[in-house]
Amino acid sequence: MSLMHHTLDNVWTIRGELELTSPLHIGAGERGMIGLDAGVLKWPDGRPVIPGSSLKGVLRSFLETVAQNDALHTLISPNRPKACIVTDEPCGRRWRNKEQRDQWRKNRSEELYRTRDLAELAEEQKARIEQELAEEIYRSLCPVCRLFGNQLFAGKLSIPDLVPEGGDPTDWYDVRDGVGIDRDTRTAKSSIKYDFELVNPGVVFPLTIRAVNLEKDEQGWLLLAVEALRRGADPGGKRPGAWGRPGTGHWRISRVLSSDPKAVLSHYLGRDQEEDYELIVDQTMQSFMPTGR
Ligand SMILES: [Zn+2]
Q: In terms of pLDDT, which residue wins out, 168 or 265?
């Protein structure tokens, strides 16, 4: 059975907080100082916002790099497609072609129902073929694309925008002078001097990461990436320690299995049973270690 979206098997929620250790550049569309493509935006009440999508991008690019390691891939995702770098050689490539998908449907229809004409099929027969095709596509995806999604699959992670709770607004920002750079000559242009805002180090952003239907290998990859982020260890692959460090708050994780009705009920009532995050990271990583050594 593959863990796609149509049935809910498990829901993981990781909660913690990140404290900025270096100034964070405000402004959409520019490359921020920590490698977040979208920079930081502002909430209507003035609070700085780190878009969840930006953080997802940071985690993804970390994993795209780390999962290139053959030994690590074999340890965590044995018998699975190797992590693709989406812009280079995307996984599941053949399925991006509609003719390939149609061809597969016809072949399968012939095997199951002895006709290549899909129009002759009953609704539930068509549904079965669509279901099987979706699973075929899913199996062709690398762990990074299964977690974060691609053109063929929506992905399993969601990260709501990060906004600091409470605090004194005057402590959040610092304004500095900037000088515009002339695009053509690459020299400073004093005429386009401007002010720019930074979010101060020390500002704490609560973070929530939700994931549905994680398979065992995806659990490993996810925790590897989140742990890098949490420890401020070079999540973007460029500047060690540049991002942040865990805030003073305790990191927690809840893992709800759909086969556990009590846990499901508690989840929908917002009363998840929470476990210690670091303990679960240790246990999960341990489960990948070769035994007998
Ligand atoms: Zn992929």
A: 265
The alpha carbon of 151 and the centre of ligand 1 are apart by a number of angstroms equal to 10
Rg (alpha carbons) of the chain, rounded to whole number = 23
The phi-psi region of residue 218 (left if phi > 0; otherwise alpha if psi is between -120 and 50; otherwise beta) is alpha
Kindly report the average pLDDT of the chain as a whole number. Answer: 83
CA distance 239 to 241: 6
Distance 84 CA to ligand 1 centre (A): 4
Does residue 34 have a pLDDT over 70? Answer: no
Which tens digit of pLDDT belongs to each residue from 102-138?
A: 999 999 999 999 999 999 999 999 999 999 999 999 9
Q: Is the dihedral of CA 30, 159, 228, 86 positive or negative?
A: negative
* Alpha carbon of 145 to ligand 1 centroid (Å): 4
How many CB atoms are closer than 10 A to CB 278?
15
Provide the residue ranges of all domains of the chain, joining segments of one domain with +.
10-80+152-286
Closest C-alpha to 246, from 1, 21, 5, 11: 21
Instruction: Look at the block and give the residue holding tokens 């059975």.
Output: 1
